[in-house]
Each structure stands twice: as structure tokens, then as C-alpha cells.
């Protein structure tokens, strides 16, 4: 058996040396090291050997297996290197060919509008604040003078998660949180952009999810004229210096008095047309003086402090500024629509 194992080793190593492909090496491996190979057959006959010979033959068989496997691995590595070199020579790259152009994206139109709004109000001394989109009933309603059972809650059909948690219906809770954080110890001058949610039927002018930017300024001796001045600058910055504004009486539970703001129609310049429905004016946002009860709940003395608040929808602003006729365009991710508003 000893001589047979040595012969098998010599024979296998010779074939490995002559092999010229990876397939041949695999065939040799199976033929000599496989379960039906000659080395296995030799080992099956070890039962006829004496106790003294068995360990000697077993050790030799393992050494023969190891020697053949080592040569097979070395030859395989060599053949793979040769094959790779050949492949690299055959598959040369023509570096003179023009490259494929990379399409560069840009900010979404709503993102650009919100950033413009932020930049404008930052230039007027406002800071940008954020808050949670999953809000408590207290901050979303009660802290804004909307106690449980208040009929004005029906104006904002809400997505409730539990009895006390809901998807916020406006970004005003951020105002309540900020005033509550300061507890009447300092003035507040902030805007809070973000997504809001209401149970609404999606159509050309409504969406169950949309964006709001709300502003708040609380300090001593803040007047309605301050609100008008801020909103007037905003309108002229976004829609042109020739735009005029007007404030109409309205109602919001968290402001008193409350107003709606209109801007003069850019199509007819106030003369009346189909865009402004013949009025010469287009409604754009709401606001008013912060209700004394809201100030009091946040820790501010309404006899010392006063303030104004306002809220606007970037979607509506974008629709008016760029002539977009359907709010759903902002959310369907049609690249043809979005590309129109990429800035160079």
C-alpha cells in the first residue's frame, strides 16, 4: 500500500503539472481526492493491515492528499492569474470615448419656496423653530384657545392616533411650545415651517398633507401695524414691488382681532379678471393679534406683552407665483414638472 500511495502521488502531481485549464484541474481533484478516487480505495483496504501498519499507512495517505491538494491550489492560482492577464489584454478600454452625462437634480419647488421664506424672515430678525409632527391635543388645540368641545375644532378635521395624540393640523403648536419654553421671560420672534395633516379630499386645491409656515412675534407694545408692515414686505418680496395688500376682518380662535390678507391680482392689477374672480384681489394668508388667553396660558402677562401671529401655505404661494394650477403636481413627483423650476 505504501508503494501504491507514492505512485498515486507521483502520477497526480505529473498530471497537475501538465494541466492547462481550470476544468482539467477540477477533473484531477475529483479523480484523485474524491470519494471514489484511488486514494480512498487504498484506505478501504487498511482493515487487512496489522495494528502497527495502520497508523503508518494512514499518516502517509494524509500526506499524499495534502501534497496533491497543495499542488492543485498553486496551479489553480497560476492559471487564474494567466487567465486574468489574458482577459485584461483582450478587454482594453478606449479612454477617448465620451463619458455618459450625469443628470444633476435640484431642490423641489416647495423646498425652494420655504427656503426663500426662511431667508426673508431671518433678515427681519425672526428665528426658525421646528416641532414634532405627531402632536399632543394640548399643544395642537388647548394651548391655542381651543378647549375640548370647541366648535372651531371642526374647522380642522384631524387624524387622531389616540385620544390625546394626533398628526398636527397646523404648525401653531410650535409657537405654543416656544412661548411655554420661555415662560414669559423674554420676547419671541420666530417662524415655524413644516408639514401638517388634515382629513381632506385631495383635489386641485386641497391635500390631506401640505406645508405651512407660521410666524409669531411677542414683545411689549407690538401692534397690528407691525403685522401689516411685516406682511407688506413679504408680499412685495415674493410677488413684486407693485403688489398691494389689504387686510379683511376674519376669525381665528387663537388671534383677536383676526384678519385675512389679500394681494392685488398680478394678472389684472386689481381691475378684475377670471383669476381673481373679478375682485382684483387674491387671498393668501391669515393672521392677527395673539389672543390674550393664549399669551396667559404660555406664561406671558397680556397686560404687559402683546404679539401678532400669521400662517401661510407655501403650496398656495408657489401656485400664485409660478402659475401652478393643481396642488397635486407638488406631490406626484413628475420629473417633467419638477425640472421647470430647477435653478441653474
Automatic annotation (TrEMBL):
Transmembrane regions: none
Chain positions recorded as Mg(2+) binding sites: 256
Key words of the record: Aminoacyl-tRNA synthetase, ATP-binding, Coiled coil, Cytoplasm, Ligase, Magnesium, Metal-binding, Nucleotide-binding, Protein biosynthesis
Class of this enzyme: ligase
Family as reported in the entry's similarity comment: Belongs to the class-II aminoacyl-tRNA synthetase family. Phe-tRNA synthetase alpha subunit type 1 subfamily.
Species per Swiss-Prot/TrEMBL record: Aquibacillus koreensis
Upper lineage: Bacteria, Bacillati, Bacillota, Bacilli, Bacillales
Gene: pheS
GO cellular component: cytoplasm
Designated name of the protein: Phenylalanine--tRNA ligase alpha subunit
Keyword Coiled coil carried by entry: yes
Subunit structure: Tetramer of two alpha and two beta subunits.
